[in-house]
């Protein structure tokens, strides 16, 4: 039995945005984009879920205030590499408010970035932990935590314009993409096609270590590298090791 919907929810609903053309056209910087994303309420099922999780909470976090809103990308506006995951974890990023922060997947990802000199800290615990990324930005294809980590096709499509805009704003500096998992892989190629990138045919298939080169509308090449997602399902079973993740990130970041 869930508790009654909290007051803050109702206030929040009064200032929801969505990734429509009017909203997107007004955005000219990544800071503006991040602020717009966290106000988004375009997917009723996901709005309801992220807020329910923020109220019911996991027992071990019951004294904490959950973020309970969309989670924006994190990292500098002049990043040369974009890491793309699927969606925030219910008790990770949906709790802490920062992508891949507060759960084991985040420990793996930031641990790897730190070993390679791309993150200030080897851990990622909260928005206020002092973490910093160097030349790398991390984002999600869907910005709200979905039930069972499975967004519906309609929700993926609704959220896609946010990623489209994020890549557009990163276009002057971005050189490579590291894609965590098959869904993010599919979503990235769909977005790049919309942005008039030239993509190999047939469209490259996802796999750990899969690589593809695409050419942007500006005529510059970018590298796309696939990696298994650092979920516990993959890391506990040894399907993804630290060395495998380090190597995939290194290949991406070394592309010039
Ligand atoms: S998933 Fe994306 S489009 Fe849907 S409410 Fe969250 S931020 Fe908005």
Describe this structure in words.
This protein is α/β, with parallel strands linked by helices and 256 residues long. The protein has one domain (21-253): Uracil-DNA glycosylase-like domain (Uracil-DNA Glycosylase, subunit E). Helix content is 38%, strand content 11%. It contains ten helices and five strands. The chain has helices spanning 7-13, 21-26, 30-37, 44-56, 93-96, 104-115, 153-170, 182-194, 232-235, 242-254, and strands at 81-85, 136-140, 176-180, 211-215, 221-227. Strands 2-1-3-5-4 form a five-stranded mixed beta sheet, sandwiched between helices. A hairpin with a 5-residue loop joins β4 and β5 (221-227). The longest helix has 18 residues, at 153-170. The chain is globular, with a radius of gyration of 17 Å. Iron/sulfur cluster (SF4) is lined by residues 19, 37, 40-43, 46-47, 70, 142-144, 155, 158-159, 162. Iron/sulfur cluster (SF4) binds at residues 19, 37, 40-43, 46-47, 70, 142-144, 155, 158-159, 162.
């Amino acid at each position: 039995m869930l508790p009654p919907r909290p007051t803050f929810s109702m206030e929040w609903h009064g200032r929801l945005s969505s990734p429509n053309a009017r909203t997107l056209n007004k955005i000219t910087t990544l800071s503006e984009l991040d602020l717009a994303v966290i106000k988004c309420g375009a997917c009723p099922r996901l709005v309801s879920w992220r807020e329910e999780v923020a109220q019911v909470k996991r027992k071990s976090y019951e004294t904490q205030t959950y973020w309970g809103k969309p989670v924006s990308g994190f990292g500098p506006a002049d990043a040369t590499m974009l890491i793309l995951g699927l969606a925030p974890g219910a008790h990770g990023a949906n709790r802490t408010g920062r992508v891949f922060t507060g759960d084991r997947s985040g420990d793996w990802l930031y641990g790897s970035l730190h070993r390679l000199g791309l993150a200030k800290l080897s851990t990622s615990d909260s928005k206020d932990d002092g973490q910093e990324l160097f030349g790398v930005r991390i984002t999600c294809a869907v910005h709200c935590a979905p039930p069972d980590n499975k967004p519906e096709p309609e929700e993926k499509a609704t959220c896609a314009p946010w990623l489209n805009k994020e890549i557009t704003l990163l276009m002057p500096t971005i050189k490579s993409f590291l894609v965590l998992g098959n869904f993010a892989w599919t979503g990235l190629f769909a977005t790049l096609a919309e942005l008039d990138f030239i993509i190999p045919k047939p469209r490259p298939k996802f796999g750990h270590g899969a690589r593809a080169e695409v050419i942007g509308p500006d005529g510059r090449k970018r590298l796309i590298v696939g990696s298994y997602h650092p979920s516990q399902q993959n890391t506990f079973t040894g399907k993804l090791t630290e060395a495998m993740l380090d190597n995939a990130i290194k290949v991406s970041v070394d592309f010039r």
